[in-house]
Design goal:
7 helices; elongated; binds FE2/S2 (inorganic) cluster
Length: about 160
Amino acid sequence: MAKINLDSILEGRRSQPHMLIEVLLDLQDQEGYLPEEALKTVSKELGVPLVDVYRVARFYKAFSLKPRGKNVITICTGTACHVRGSHLLVNQVRGQLNIEPGDTTPDGQFTVECVNCLGACALGPIVVHNGSYCDHMTPGKLRKKIDKAAGKKKEAQDA
Ligand code: FES
């Protein structure tokens, strides 16, 4: 595994425990998740106990402790979206990708996550694909979106 360069992220933030969330956000941006080795370095350099670093990393949904796929599909399963059928969307990805929410496909192409409310309940059910909001999602539309994302990867490999 390539060594993670934290120098630019930690510059000007060393020994400043209150910078923890900012450092974790930058690390997440850089690596796509929060690798264990990097968290140990962050703990040491900021002077925050490792247990507290993990507590923060686990608390916020924005952070992931596992590598994520190229396509991150987030399904809102809050009450309003659930009433409008988000459970059918979860079943769709389970059947199509053969993974459970929170998991990544073995080829690293898709990660599926569930969240509680994205704050756009009237437009539900909502799915976020790599940061883009998709409203009034149906299992059929989601299936096509996943097929398209998987196809793009294949085209890129063929090129
Ligand atoms: S419950 Fe899904 S956006 Fe609010």
